[in-house]
Automatic annotation (TrEMBL), chain A:
MF (Gene Ontology): transmembrane transporter activity
Main location: membrane
UniProt organism field: Pseudooceanicola albus
Assembly behavior: The complex comprises the extracytoplasmic solute receptor protein and the two transmembrane proteins.
PANTHER family assigned to the protein according to its UniProt record, in alphabetical order: C4-DICARBOXYLATE TRAP TRANSPORTER LARGE PERMEASE PROTEIN DCTM, SIALIC ACID TRAP TRANSPORTER PERMEASE PROTEIN SIAT-RELATED
Lineage: Bacteria, Pseudomonadati, Pseudomonadota, Alphaproteobacteria, Rhodobacterales
Keywords linked to the UniProt accession: Cell inner membrane, Cell membrane, Membrane, Transmembrane, Transmembrane helix, Transport
Family membership noted in the UniProt record: Belongs to the TRAP transporter large permease family.
Membrane-protein topology: Multi-pass membrane protein
Protein name as it appears in the record: TRAP transporter large permease protein
InterPro entries per the UniProt record, alphabetical: DctM, TRAP_DctM
Keyword Transferase recorded: no
Primary role: Part of the tripartite ATP-independent periplasmic (TRAP) transport system.
Pfam families: DctM (PF06808)
Transmembrane segments: 6-39, 60-80, 100-129, 141-165, 177-200, 221-242, 278-300, 320-350, 362-381, 401-422
UniProtKB/TrEMBL annotation, chain B:
Domain of life: Bacteria
Family, similarity comment: Belongs to the TRAP transporter small permease family.
Phylogenetic placement of the source organism: Bacteria, Pseudomonadati, Pseudomonadota, Alphaproteobacteria, Rhodobacterales
Organism name: Pseudooceanicola albus
Signal peptide interval: none
One term under GO cellular component: plasma membrane
Name of this protein: TRAP transporter small permease protein
Amino acid sequence: MDPVTIGVLALVALLVLIGLRVPIAASLIAVSFVGIWAVAGLRPAMSMLSTIPYTTSASWTLSSIPMFLLMGYIAFHSGLTRGLFEAARVWWGWLPGGLAIASLAGASGFAAVSGSSVACSAAIGRIAVPEMARAGYDLRIATGSVAAGGTIGALIPPSIILILFGIQAETSINDLFLGGLILGLGSLAFYVAAVLIVWWRHPERLPRAAGHSMGDRWKKTLEIWPVLLLIGAVFGGLFSGIFTATEAGAFGSFMALAIGIGRRTLSWARFKESLVDTLLSSGSLFIIAIGANLFTRLVAMSGLSMQMGDFVDGLGLGTLTLLLLIVLIYLVIGMFLEPIGALLLTLPLFLPVLAEHGVDKLWFGLLVAKLLEIGMITPPVGLNVFVIHSVARDYVRLEQIFAGIVPFILADLALVATMLALRGFM
Amino acid sequence: MLNLLETAIARLSMVLGALVLLAMMLQVVIDVFTRTFLGAGFPATPDLVGKYYMVAVSVLPLALTELKRRHIEATVFTHNLRGVPLRVVQMLGFGIFTAVLAVMTWGSGQEAIRQMSRGAYIEAGTLKFITWPSYWILPISFALALVVLLIRIFETLTGRFGDHDDDPVGALEDMQEEI
Amino acid sequence: DTIRATSGFGPNHAIAKDVYPAMFAKLSELTDGRWKGRDTPSGLVAPNEMSTGLRDGVTDFGPLLMPYFIADYPESAMMSELSMLGSSAQVVSAAVTEYVVTCAPCQAEFKRNGQVYLGSDATPLYDILSTKPVKTLEDMKGLKIRSGSPFYAAFIEKTGGAPVQMPSSELFESLSQGVIDATFSSPHEVIANRLGDVVDYVTEIEEGVFNGAATTTASKMLWDRMSAEDRGALATASQYGLVAGVDGFGKQIEEVRAEKLVTFIAPDQSLIDARDSFNAERLANAATILEGRGVTDAQAKIDRYKALIDKWEGLITPEMTPDELAALRTKEIWSKIDLASYGE
Ligand code: NA
Ligand code: NA
């Protein structure tokens, strides 16, 4: 069997196993192992299974993910977040989809301190979802808005994916960051539009709260000073150069813990619960990250990606058709691979082709970042959706979150179409 | 007997995991603090966090995650199954997960033995930072998870495993009462 | 036959752009097209997985950064402790390669890991790349500088700065936000790692090089597929690649200067003196440090390496072309090796 066939069969096998309720991590690892064995032999397959779990998890940079999860859980269990959403509700609850919009805005805010999409979802997920559920929001739109909001985390700087693109494609990272800021805010605007459209079609899914007087509002706002202190400390420390984006999560957890203890709202039992919840989320997420990493190696090894590059190159398409095809390819890749691996795998294939067509690298970098982030919320392997599932799985099924994502994917596609249309002006 | 084993595994992973999480948080904060106010950070923080704490936080909870049935799976095509078809689907999931864990336990164990025999270390600043023990975190964690999965297979075969789909709405009501 | 190489550092890295393309072109020429090469620059084997990747045939060929696996290569990575020796990257690259090829304990290390060593490159001399001007010893006080190896960490401590360890993936952000003030690196990284976007000054302290990369390393499984003649062709072609890579670094530095991407600062005498006294002390202690790592008879080995540096300082002249350099390395190093038994 030739390697490309093996690659295609692996994709099919993965879909079947996931559909048959085999845990997603086990499906990814099993298919990768058998696939690498078929392409390259048992020894390389064994070798990768022996080393990649270590090299994937032994990462200082990824440490922000459990730390942001811990911060979210401590903030939730000590009642900090409840106040925050109370305040959001008295201010914006009367607006159509006000809480969903507040969550999106909150995710965009966290995007400025976290470099990755998963860390951003982890930080905001535990805070926002239960509060929206309590306000009577449809669980699909509640979880979908947070999973989608997390993707803004990798667009607004700092952004690991844009730094990587800048280095690999010899593009100014400062320019990419400026573009990423605009793109992130653009995404926020499109997501807000998606929420409003859902509200317009199904007002019962996003119930509006009664209006509140200004006095009420300020009273509620003053009550949330501990959260404002937490947020202020994290942002202040980051922007004054005291700590890095990776360290921000640990510092945030520490602050949340200190505030919870100081206000006596965090009991010993709830503190333990925060730790166990964090472990359970890490336990379910990192093994999927290991699986997704192994699967990326299989795709690299099978030559499927190279074949794709040659195929696209050989078609001799016009620039717009070529770009549409590449958009389509990234959407499919994004279904299965994680963004960093997918970026590393595909850039060497597409950059030369696009250079021939005179496509601006800065614009393309932003497009790729956006497309790969869409992959974070598309089935079957959507890491952001898994994060939200892991923090909200007591009351929402995975499929419901994927269903809730649909309006936001449509918004993303509209944004991608806008980017394609605006390309001529860059 | 099996219950006793499950409880022991759960306790062990909770206590160790929680300690690692706290150590990670405190060490990063201390590193930031000493770097800012004393000029030099806590030695080897990125290495200790990356090579030890992160490996532990990533894989040590695997057994606990299965005990609490928190591994992420898609139930969209299977949530109406009952009886024998449900048992078959459950067995497929447990079987594949068990096979994967068995291979990873063996493979990462071989790797840990190799790293130990070389006395693997890295150079962190001017320090010699020993890394080989961190490789043992993987086979130990995978083996713990493997034990839990074997218990699951035994339970499924003997009809004692009564996993039903979650009741999201009921759980939400429980949560609202609790808080 | 095709060599499946994995340069691992991405499509824009010198290994993917200069070293491997030049090497594969030469290999194809020397073997009349019997052997070709194909590089997967990223996504298959990461640099920190390269040792097992080569051993188990995940890839045929790749760059091995020995400091990542220092416990596996105490003898072959010895020269990173002698980073202060040598006046140019081409000299260091040739001397390190000759040393490892002709060092029995080094060869045993590669053999034990299922690999065949075919050469090292070296970076240009390291400077201080910083966000604020550094000219005097006084300017070093309290400066937070990222250090990639014990050699630089010790130098930073000695001159009153604060060494900070962080992965290279965080370098850009940390410089940009002021978490650190500077990094020790070659000025070609102003372009290669986009550091020019955050760094404004380069203090030309010329302190050491990075020489710990066995950039052309073959899997033993590939070596077993090759005849003695084709092995010779691969060893020769590797020298052409390595020379081209070092040459590429030089061109990037010229570009940094020509386009005035940063301000170059000449260090004053206080900083130069601090460097020279540090280097003298470090060199005097090198044998002790190396024996602590398990290198036996270290002083004799240091002396042999010093002699090789002197030899190549005499052989290499600034006006040599890359092809002449590669031919010289082939003649001086590889023509004396029996390739039927090398690596076995
Ligand atoms: Na961000
Ligand atoms: Na996806």
